[in-house]
Amino acid sequence: MSQSVKGTIKRITQESTYGKTRKKSLILTTEEKFSQTLEVEFLNDKINLIEGYDVGEQVEIPVNIRGREWTSPKGELKYFMSLSGWKIDRTVGLTNATQNQDRKEANVDLPF
Prior knowledge:
mainly beta, CATH 2.40.50.140, 5-stranded mixed beta barrel
């Protein structure tokens, strides 16, 4: 099942490894009336997609909703769900001012 979530990056976790699976997550705060805090995980080769993103950026992430059933050693039935990201886009475009914050406009007389 595929959906999309929009929000502001609150935190980026460290990469971790579980067996042969690598995982790195973004923690997002949605911008709804009743905002939600969501973990979107990126697995294996998808981890590279979040390079260059920082806390505070607004993003939209298409996700696959994954769930599974598990029986504990005591025989209790448990259910788990995760959001797995497969793409990421900034929802607020970069401007020259945001890309070059260290530069100020100079009043330069042009020769023409």
